[in-house]
Design a protein that fits this description.
Layout (H helix, E strand, L loop, with lengths): L1 H7 L4 E6 L11 E8 L2 H10 L5 E4 L5 E3 L4 E8 L4 E4 L2 E5 L4 H10 L2 E2 L11 H6 L3 E2 L2 E2 L4 E8 L4 E6 L17 E9 L1 E2 L2 H18 L19 H7 L6 E2 L2 E3 L7 E3 L5 H19 L8 E3 L2
Parallel strand pairs: 2-5, 3-5, 4-18
Antiparallel strand pairs: 1-2, 6-7, 7-13, 8-14, 9-10, 11-12, 11-13, 15-16, 16-17
C-alpha cells in the first residue's frame, strides 16, 4: 500500500480505522483501510491503483450505520469541496457540506438552498438520497450531476430528469459510482431574507430534533399516507431502549446513541419498531438510513 501513501499522503491513509470516528451515530467496527481523496485527479489515479480491490464509498457518514464487524477492503471518502458561481448557476464538488454551501450562497445573495442548510452531510450524499426538508428536495435545484462510473472508470454527466429523483431516492443508489460534482440552478435573493429563513429552519430543528445526541438523522422514511414518527409516538415507543440505542424522547422518528450503543442495538431497535408498527397499525415502515458492513 506504499503507492497509496505516496499518492495521498500518510495522513490520508489509515489502517484498521474505527468507523465510529466517521459516522454521526458514533458506532461501527473497523475498516481494513480508510482513505480520503481530495481531488478528481487523485481519485482517477487511486481507482486505477485499486481496480482489483473491494471499495466502499462514503460521504460524511451522516445517514449511515456501519455494523459492529466493520468493513473489509477499502473505505473511500471523496472530500473535494470547491465551488464555482456563475450568476445563478453554481457548480459544487460533492465533498462540500450542505451547511458550508448554504453559507457560501448566502454571501452571494443566492436563494433556493436554505432548506438544505441544516441537513447533515455532503452535497454528494444529498444527491444520492434526494435529501429534502421544509417542502423542498435536491431535485428542485439540481441541473446536472457529474460522476465516475466505477464499472468503466469513465466520467459521465446526467441531467436532472435522468437522475430519476423520487422521495429519498435517485438513480445513484443503484449505480456503482462516485459523484464528483453537481450544478445547481438558484435564484437571486435578498441576503437578509435568506438569512432569516435559514435561522427559522435552524430554530425548528433545534426545538424538535435531538441534535445534542449522536444519530443518523431521521431513521425511517415517510409513510405512504401517514407520518411515521407519529405512529411510533402513538405506539408508545418514545424513550424505548435496546442496549445503548433509544427512540428519542424529543422526536420519535430518531434513534439516538445514548453514549454506549453498538450497531447491533440500533439494528435490533429498528427491527423492533418495524414489528410493533406493523402489529399495531398494519403499516410497513422502511429505514431511511443505509446499513453497511459485514
Amino acid at each position: 500500500m506504499g503507492e497509496l501513501e505516496n499518492l495521498l499522503g500518510t495522513e490520508n491513509v489509515k489502517y484498521n480505522e474505527p468507523m465510529s470516528k466517521h459516522t454521526t451515530f458514533k458506532v461501527g467496527g473497523i475498516a481494513d483501510t480508510y482513505i480520503t481523496v481530495n481531488s478528481k485527479e487523485k481519485l482517477l489515479k487511486v481507482l486505477e491503483l485499486l481496480k482489483n480491490e473491494k471499495i466502499t464509498i462514503i460521504g460524511n457518514g451522516s445517514n449511515l450505520l456501519v455494523t459492529d464487524k466493520g468493513i473489509r477492503g477499502i473505505v473511500l471518502k471523496y472530500s473535494a469541496n470547491n465551488c464555482s458561481i456563475n450568476g445563478k448557476t453554481v457548480t459544487v464538488e460533492s465533498g462540500m457540506t450542505n451547511a458550508r454551501l448554504a453559507n457560501t450562497l448566502l454571501k452571494q445573495n443566492l436563494a433556493g438552498y436554505e432548506f438544505a442548510a441544516g441537513i447533515p452531510g455532503t452535497i454528494g450524499g444529498a444527491i444520492v438520497m434526494n435529501a429534502g426538508a421544509y417542502g423542498k428536495e435536491m431535485k428542485d435545484v439540481v441541473e446536472s450531476t457529474e460522476f465516475i462510473d466505477l464499472e468503466t472508470n469513465k466520467i459521465e454527466t446526467l441531467k436532472n430528469e435522468e437522475q430519476e429523483f423520487e422521495y429519498r431516492k435517485s438513480i445513484f443508489q443503484n449505480k456503482k459510482c462516485i459523484i464528483l460534482s453537481t450544478t445547481l440552478k438558484l435564484e437571486d435573493g435578498i441576503k437578509e431574507e435568506i438569512e432569516e429563513k435559514m435561522k427559522e429552519y435552524a430554530e425548528k430543528r433545534r426545538s424538535t430534533q435531538p441534535l445534542d445526541m449522536p444519530s443518523a438523522g431521521s431513521t425511517f422514511k415517510r409513510g405512504n399516507g401517514f407520518i411515521t414518527a407519529k405512529l411510533i409516538d402513538e405506539a408508545g415507543l418514545k424513550g424505548y431502549s435496546i442496549g445503548g440505542a433509544q427512540v428519542s424522547t424529543k422526536h420519535a422518528g430518531f434513534i439516538v446513541n445514548k453514549g454506549n450503543a453498538k450497531a447491533k442495538d440500533i439494528i435490533e431497535l429498528i427491527k423492533y419498531i418495524q414489528d410493533e408498527i406493523y402489529k399495531k397499525f398494519g403499516e410497513k415502515i422502511e429505514p431511511e438510513i443505509k446499513i453497511i458492513g459485514e
